Amino acid sequence: MAAAEPPDLAPLLPPSGGGGVADALRSGDVKRAAVFAAALPSEDARRLWRGTLAIVGNDAVTAIRTLRPLGDSKALGVAYYLARQYVLFREQMHAAIRREPSDFGPYYLLGRHYDSELDDCAEAVRWFRLALERNPAYGRAHAHLGYCLERQGDAAGAERAYQSSIGLALSQAGMARLQQKAGRAAEALTWAQKAEGDPAADRLAARLYESLGRPAEAIAALERLRRAVPHDASVLYQLHRLHRAAKDDARAKAALAEYERVRAIYGAQPER
């Protein structure tokens, strides 16, 4: 199983300073970070960290109101991103780059935006590579670069990027997909098992287990996936199909009923 991955906070946090706030956030101790932030001597510094803590708490409105007077483009841009105000996000990221061109964060965040919201892999690749020029050790940038290269059909480039961040479940799941596409099911399953608990890896593992004639393990992977993505009706239909094949009529019927319920509420998501 992949090791637990740290929160993706490094691109957001200021490059330096903070009187222990940044370290507390990196460790996941938000309460301790708030105590450190309140003790900072500068009102501007306290405001910056209050806004950052609001972002961590998924409170876009408070973050924007708190950060807007400061002129810290990166933090304010992330707050706009959280509020899905993407034009304002991009404006602030470019302003942050002009102010501090050596900070990898805005480049990485733009890469994530072009990948996730705009489905523009070519532009995302450009921004991820600019981020890695400034911080070649940031594993998530390698992992997301690999995913974009994979989607562009550059398997060799994707593998290099994944290997540069192979301790992350994102990259282990990517390696599993590359092996599966190359027809190496056993190797793909080994990588998917390393990333157990990652939704993409569990989705692929279920297919691989089924293709290898291991339905019980396929069902276990789908149950993990079901807990991770409870609104995805396609997972429930796959469970129904596998239970039916195993002649477990009661579980097949229950999975089908839950599939119909979830699909009626959230719609039918295509299997990815």
Strand content: under 5%
Second rung of CATH, namely the architecture of one domain: Alpha Horseshoe
Number of helices: 16
Based on helices, strands and strand pairing, what is the structural class?
A: mainly alpha
Using DSSP, what is the number of strands? 0
Write down the Rg.
Answer: 21 Å
Ranges with pLDDT <50 over ≥5 residues? 1-5
Overall shape: it is globular
Listing every helix as H and every strand as E from the N terminus to the C terminus, the arrangement reads HHHHHHHHHHHHHHHH
Structure notes:
This protein is mostly helical. Among the domains are: 1-101, Alpha Horseshoe (Serine Threonine Protein Phosphatase 5, Tetratricopeptide repeat); 197-272, Serine Threonine Protein Phosphatase 5, Tetratricopeptide repeat. Helix content is 70%, strand content 0%. It has 16 helices and no strands. The radius of gyration is 21 Å and the shape is globular.
Summarize this structure as a short list of keywords or feature phrases:
16 helices, Serine Threonine Protein Phosphatase 5, Tetratricopeptide repeat, about 270 residues, about 0% strand, globular, disordered N terminus, mainly alpha
